Amino acid sequence: MSSQAAASIPQHGSAAEFAWALLRAASSLAGQLDRGKAFALFAADAGEGLRRSPGERADVVLAWRPGSGWESRLPLEDPRFELVNLYLPICSATMARPMTIGHLGQSLDGFIATPSGDSQFVTGSDNIIHVHRMRALSDAVIVGAGTVAADDPQLTTRHVPGPSPLRVIFDPGRRLTTEFRVFTDRVGPALYVCGRAHVAPGETHIGAAKIAVIDGGDSGDEAAQTLRLLHGRGCARVFVEGGGVTVSTFLEANLLDRLQIAIAPVLIGNGRAAIRLAPQTRLQDCRRPSYRVFRMGGDVLFDCELNVRADAVEAPAPGTVHRII
Ligand SMILES: NC(=O)c1ccc[n+]([C@@H]2O[C@H](COP(=O)([O-])OP(=O)(O)OC[C@H]3O[C@@H](n4cnc5c(N)ncnc54)[C@H](OP(=O)(O)O)[C@@H]3O)[C@@H](O)[C@H]2O)c1
To answer: Which one of 119, 152, 214, 268 would you pick to mutate in the ligand 1 pocket, going by the greatest count of ligand atoms within 8 A of its CB?
Structure first.
């Protein structure tokens, strides 16, 4: 679906908490329901998040449809509607239908950090919570070596309830030194993906992070090998969190199913770029994916479905201007 109006995402308060409990339950039930191959209805449950409903009743909030996944039954006026709407497609991904999602928080002029790598924070706190929610719904989170070098991130879900994903450091050229937190903190599993030429015989770990070897190739091949390796470890939902070079590599290699770009009202002027792809001569050859728009505090999130073209869905009437805030 393509949408022109930006829905506001409530990241705090009781509606957000109820919606998040429901989404976490939907996320963890998806694999089992997919294997069951049966249509099922669910009502919200104070303890478990969701409980099966025997039929179409007024308290039904979600339906599971074999082959496609979750559908919301919440009415538009329900305060949980928008949060559930944003994350439900991700909760539907399973090993049979894996999903890889890229995210960047960028300035109005298309940068994710200053030239020195300062990026804390381009977007506001609601988008930071969104990133933590995306981690909690994902089996693995990938970051590039430049992000580890600049931010020394933990890649946990400390701002929201939910499990932390496998932390994956994509560094084919083995550029990183060993002092970063993902190698030393032991707060969760970490996988260090680097090229075979850079791994010594018998070397299995860097600190607490396990080494995963990929063969040489162009950067798209390296990204594809990384994704295959993660699918082989049972990771159905993979979140590519940055930086710009890494998200662009996955995008250029057609490995992303969704691309989320949060635009913040700031002008950085110059610095680390967001998405950069091979140039096209003709504008008509550039991708125009289907998208949804969500308001997150002062930022606007474009949630793009890359395998659906915008012209394949209903277009807004020409000349229509929607006030989105
Ligand atoms: N706003 C956001 O959403 C967001 C999210 C994540 C990160 N960030 C910011 O984005 C920046 C990183 O993104 P990025 O696109 O530059 O890189 P990246 O995608 O994180 O990592 C890949 C790039 O980093 C380079 N690199 C490898 N080791 C490095 C090192 N030790 N020091 C510096 N660069 C190294 C790689 O060069 P080689 O190919 O030559 O190895 C490659 O070009 C950081 O400033 C981070 O704070 C912002």
So the answer is: 119
**C-beta 153 within 6 A of ligand 1:** no
Q: Is the pTM of this model over 0.90?
A: yes
Residue 74 lies in a domain: yes
Whose CA is closest to 74, among 107, 104, 44, 114? 44
Shortest-distance Cα residue to atom 16 of ligand 1:
146
Same domain, 80 and 133: no
Regarding whether 85 and 107 lie in a shared domain, the answer is no
Q: Which domain holds residue 138?
A: 99-312
Same domain, 17 and 144: no
> Are 292 and 308 within 8 A, CB to CB?
no
Do residues 264 and 212 both lie within one domain? yes
| pLDDT tens digits, 17-33 | 999 999 999 999 999 99
Per-residue pLDDT reduced to its tens digit, 90-113: 999 999 999 999 999 999 999 999
Going across the sheet that includes 69-72, the strands are 49-53, 40-45, 60-65, 69-72
| Domain boundary, last residue among 62, 91, 120 | 91
Q: Is the CB of 10 under 6 A from ligand 1?
A: no
Q: Ligand 1 pocket: which of 107, 114, 122, 147 to mutate (most atoms <8 Å of CB)?
A: 147
Q: What is the mean pLDDT of the chain?
A: 94
